[in-house]
Amino acid sequence: xxTLRDVAREAGVSVATASRAxxxxxxxxxxxKAAVMAAVKKLNFVPHSGARSLTRRKTDxxxxxxxxxxxxxxxxxxxxxxxxxxxxxxxxxxxNMHGSTHETAAAIAAxxxxxxxxxVMPPDVNPDQLSGYLDPxxxxxxxxxxxxxxxxxxxxxDNYRGAYAxxxxxxxxxxxxxxxxxxxKHNRDARDxxxxxxxxxxKIAKISNPAILPGDFSEESGAQAGRLxxxxxxxxxxxxxxxxxxxxxxxxxxxNAGKSVPGDVLVAxxxxxPLARHLNPSLTTMQVKIDRLxxxxxMMLLRILRGETLGGASATILTPTLVARGTTRRAxxxxxxxxxxxxxx
Length: 345
Prior knowledge:
Elements (H helix, E strand, L loop, with lengths): L3 H8 L3 H8 L7 H14 L5 H8 L4 E6 L5 H16 L3 E6 L4 H11 L5 E4 L6 H7 L6 E4 L10 E4 L1 H14 L5 E4 L6 H17 L6 E3 L5 H12 L7 E4 L2 H13 L9 E6 L12 E4 L2 H16 L10 E3 L2 E3 L11 H6 L5
Parallel strand pairs: 1-2, 1-3, 3-4, 4-5, 5-11, 6-7, 6-8, 8-9, 9-10
Antiparallel strand pairs: 10-12
Helix pairs in contact: 1-2, 1-3, 2-3, 5-12, 8-9, 10-11
């Protein structure tokens, strides 16, 4: 039995375009529709009546599926989405995939027939696998995921450039023994931030194997890194955490051990969660404008729901901005001194 994917392949169009043509939705040219319908006839494709009715039903609800719903990062994303959705009279239906590929499929399936469109921040899954989870007839915008081969619109953060810039800034402050607290290995954001750090250290400081401690984006993993540092297991004059949450845990552990920030060690994070500016000292970080990540994706989805055709070429890449605060405010020191300095034990 022929599938919608078979029809799209035969007509030489995307699955989403084939679905719109079959369901009589807008923004499909007459030649394209003719090609799709010819493929339908040739392959004896019979659209599923239940799927068609679900596709056409309007719920005024948008599904939002994230790796987690806990923490300031995700709450800021949801806040940005909700600001735009509320103004447009739309409701949100939230789903949590817990970073699991299996739960991603289940969360997406649970949204079918209940929402008009989807905003999804997928886990570390390849595009072909993700394609198998998504309903091609359901408008979808991806968050922090470039699935070019799927030709889906997405909003992402330039994590590599942000991490490179932060590392460069710490080096300019005189730091040489910079330790990076990495995020989860399966997380694309974490990998890109680590890559930016490593490349900056290699190109600017000529250090090809910089110190990296494992982390998982949690406050506790930042505290664990802090314990290793105060025990003298790793010399450091600066620490760049892959997110602010880990930087918060690190700073608490350093304070408990009587270490001064920025006097003994510089500290920097990434994301600029609301808490970052209220710490003492306030946290130097890469400002992502997390709420804008959500609001931009929601505005993109609304454009699709109103009839526009958006694909991968409509992607928006947000460039982080370095916000220098108290955790790196100390007089720059000569490179020779910095090279010999480290976190005292």
